[in-house]
Amino acid sequence: MKPAYFSFLGLAVWLILAVAAYIQVNMLIYWYIFGLGLFVCAFFDAWSVWRLPILQITRHVQGSLSLGVWSEVYLSVHNQTSQQYVIDIFDDYPLTADLQGLPQNLSISGTSTLKICYKIRPKQRGTTQFSGIHVLLSSPLRFWKYARYITLKTSIRVYPNFSVITKYALFATENKLGQLGIRKLQRRGEGLEFQQLREYRSGDALRQIDWNATSRQKKLISKEYQDERDQQIVFLIDCGRGMLAQDGTLSHFDHTLNAILLLSYVALRQGDALGLMSFSGEERWLAPRKSMNTLNIILNTVYDLQPTTHTSDYLRAATQLIHRLKKRSLVILISNLRDDDNDELYPALQILRQKHLVLVGSLQERIFKEVLDKPVNTFDDAIRHTACLSYLNARHQAHDTLKKRGLMVLDTEPEQLPVMMVNRYLEIKRRGVL
User: Fold this and answer.
1) 30-62 burial, b for 16+ CB within 10 Å, e for fewer?
2) Over the stretch 9-26, which tens digit does the pLDDT of each residue have?
3) In whole angstroms, what is the distance from residue 171 CA to residue 149 CA?
4) Predicted TM-score (pTM) of this structure
5) In what helix (H) or strand (E) does residue 221 lie, and over which residues does it extend?
6) Sheet hosting strand 112-122, strand order edge to edge
7) How crowded is residue 164: how many other Cβ atoms within 10 Å of its Cβ?
8) Which residue has the higher pLDDT, 175 or 336?
9) Which CATH fold topology does 56-159 show?
10) What CATH architecture does domain 163-169+176-184+228-431 belong to?
């Protein structure tokens, strides 16, 4: 319990009367009377607020929230007495989140319920919880504020931001995928599955014409093909220290998970099977499987997966995966590659290439581009500019070495990774190289 506004106001008046009594003795009686009245009122008010029954408070929040997205939390305050309550309320929200709308001051009349809303924005994936409610109860005469804590635990899960999937689905329905940067390539080459027969259209190749159906129907009939289905895509997720790098509010690891979710959605819609394996941290394995429910399984597998300070062990990861994965698959390795990683990386990729098609996604730090874009005005700027340029050149040479050895490499900033991975996947499907 702590003093409130009228406690300080009454004390200030009592001190003024004390000064007046010191100057004029006939004011002393007023000082005694006011002090006694102040003490009685304060004591009675403290006793009254201490006896007030506790309010009933319930919390309503979604059990699953998205990383970096504002979500609403509702508190319902139930006053079952006839006494009016004036309170300050603060929810014990997860510390790994931003907050808007707390604390709040409420006045609740007798036998009523009041609902309030505030917002949180999670900054870290995984399981977290709300612990309880802090209530600061004002006494009837406003002399005191009585602090009470209501234990009210609510567990929530913070998932990667899957809004990019919603945007993709919307744009795909409206045939506007180009606005996301996703290219629809023309089919060419073999490896395409027969889908149906249809009437000949201008521009169809002669090899598409089904001459038997044409002779029966007395008109040109073409074969229509679709991309091959029932293929496998497996993500090899690096949880090593390189993935701790952070640009803006999200780490490279969070951007990686966002890209995995988008490509998983696209691949599952194409009829392919999805799987994943993490390494150089907590090792998780999800065998390839089909159906759109696989997306939920992937979400629940990676939502609390975090990068570590371990060195990335590519060779061990490749050896484990080659023993687990029997069917030829598209293996997508996502990491933050440095020029000094090639000595360990290339032998691992060679192991995977014996049976699988391998795509390497390498994430760039945005800070290097920002340094190169800045004007060079001082000697320190020149040193910083030269160091960044030297690092990026070595990085590009390392990637070029991988490409010359027949490996597919995506070198991109984290924000562009989802779209670039989808485009490369669709290109692989169209060309039938898997």
Assistant:
1) ebeebbeebeeebeebbebbeeeeebebebebe
2) 777 877 877 777 777 767
3) 48
4) 0.72
5) strand 221-227
6) 56-60, 71-79, 112-122, 97-100
7) 17
8) 336
9) Immunoglobulin-like (2.60.40)
10) 3-Layer(aba) Sandwich (3.40)
